[in-house]
Design a protein that fits this description.
This protein is of the alpha/beta class. It folds into 2 domains: 282 residues, Aspartate Aminotransferase, domain 2 (3-Layer(aba) Sandwich), CATH 3.40.640.10; 134 residues, Aspartate Aminotransferase, domain 1, CATH 3.90.1150. The protein has 16 helices and 12 strands. A 7-stranded mixed beta sheet has the order 1-7-6-5-4-2-3, sandwiched between helices. β4, α7 and β5 form a beta-alpha-beta unit. It binds pyridoxal-5'-phosphate. Pyridoxal-5'-phosphate binds next to α4 and α5.
Length: 428
């Protein structure tokens, strides 16, 4: 769909245009395999000489329809769905890096992604260096090595809610001849499109706002199509040297900068690792995407109202929300997220762990959940859940006060949410 249409229209209609008499809703192609008349037809698919489907472990038409919508929203050249956000980040990085390579990543990222890069990818022989997102360009540059092949960050980090200076990170990555990969899960393309600011590859946990109803785990990878792989030929042999599993095909030559990255990730990584999203999940994801632009505005409105309310409460030590004037990242938020970021707010209560437990017990609308970014407001106290194993001292060292509450504001009426918070604060 034409990019001249507003993002609101594209959320509803991009990716699928039915022909005369065809279904209005995207068809769920619940088929593992596809039929061909001749072996020659099939052979062309295996040689990547013809486009088409042969096995749903690699590609499925329903998933591709939804990937095309997400690609349109992010302003990319090609995209694919994955089984989860974890798979999306792994594929995005492993499509570029191999054993002996090195990644520079922001230290302010989702814990699961930190573990993926720092522990699991290290076991595969891929090293990493973590940098503060607030570091200067010189400090970021100093983290690069001869074998660095990618830079990584999150537009709005989960759970720290730091805002990434995408242009700064892109400048440094490009100075060193490597692509910038940005996880854009929290703002979604409705609120920020990292490719417009210089990012090369964008990833998503579609499990969050894109689905938006806590119904289906999923992920997505979008290629901006601008990174010049052949211009850095020696760094990226996976894309610029022959792939013997496809008779010596060179992805960057055959599919160009627009298509090489996603084609390789599909026909090589998906073929061998099989982290595919189910067509049923893709269908549900599309239902979420159709209202994403309507929902994000409400999530932001609720997040902002809740953050402002909490900031004025005597039981609250501090509130972390980039939309607050007092927030360290407010200037970056105004630049990269002019319509607001997301509905996730974190705040510290006086009285530590006990106060947080009492407060959460009294909430009537916000449920206690290991989740963020869906229609229903939910919350979590890291000290008694995700970071439970840490002592009081270790919590302080990790920058997670015992009284910290992370709240994901849903789509309820903000007056009801604030009234609920008020009565729970009074009950501590
Ligand atoms: C920013 C971010 N990226 C990636 C992930 C991982 O996504 P998933 O749970 O879909 O594997 C998460 C999960 O919370 C996340 O918040």
């Amino acid at each position: 769909m034409n990019q001249d249409y507003s993002i609101n229209t594209r959320c509803v209609q991009a990716g699928y245009t039915p022909g005369n008499g065809e279904p209005r809703q995207i068809p769920i192609i619940q088929s593992t395999t596809f039929k061909y008349d001749t072996s020659e037809d099939m052979g062309k698919l295996f040689d990547l000489e013809a486009t088409g489907y042969f096995y749903s472990r690699l590609q499925n038409p329903t998933c591709d329809t939804v990937a095309a919508k997400i690609c349109n929203l992010e302003g990319g050249s090609a995209a694919m769905l994955t089984s989860s956000g974890q798979a999306a980040n792994f594929f995005a990085l492993f499509n570029i890096c191999e054993a002996g390579d090195h990644i520079v990543a922001s230290s302010s990222i989702y814990g699961g992604t930190f573990n993926l890069i720092a522990v699991t990818m290290a076991k595969m022989g891929i090293e990493s260096t973590f940098v503060s997102p607030d570091a200067s360009e010189e400090e970021l540059s100093a983290a690069f090595k001869e074998n660095t092949r990618a830079m990584f960050g999150e537009t709005i980090a989960n759970p720290a809610l730091t805002v990434l200076d995408i242009e700064k990170f892109a400048r440094v990555a490009h100075k060193h001849g490597v692509p910038l990969v940005v996880d854009n899960t929290f703002p979604t393309p409705v609120n920020c499109r990292p490719i417009e600011w210089g990012a090369d590859i964008v990833t998503h946990s579609t499990t969050k706002y894109m689905d938006g109803h806590g119904a289906a785990v999923g992920g997505a990878i979008i290629d901006g199509g601008k990174f010049d792989w052949m211009g850095h030929k020696d760094k990226f042999p996976g894309l610029t040297a022959p792939d013997e599993s496809y008779h010596g095909l060179v992805y960057a030559e055959k599919f160009g900068n627009e298509g090489a990255f996603i084609t390789k990730a599909t026909v090589q990584l998906m073929r061998d690792l099989g982290c595919v999203q189910s067509p049923q999940s893709a269908f549900m994801l599309n239902l979420g995407l159709e209202s994403l632009h309507v929902r994000m505005g409400r999530h932001v409105e609720n997040g902002q109202a809740v953050a402002e309310f909490l900031e004025s409460q005597p039981q609250v030590v501090s509130v972390n929300y980039p939309g607050l004037k007092s927030n360290k990242y407010n200037a970056l938020a105004q630049k990269y997220l002019p319509q607001g970021g997301c509905g996730v707010v974190s705040f510290e209560l006086k009285g530590g762990r006990k106060a947080a437990e009492a407060f959460m017990k009294h909430l009537k609308l916000a449920a206690i959940e290991t989740h963020v970014a869906d229609a229903r407001t939910c919350c979590l106290n890291p000290a008694t859940s995700t970071h439970r194993q840490l002592t009081e001292e270790q919590l302080i060292e990790a920058g997670i006060p015992a009284g910290l509450v992370r709240m994901s504001c849903g789509l309820e009426d903000k007056k009801d949410l604030i009234a609920d918070l008020k009565q729970a604060l009074e009950a501590i």
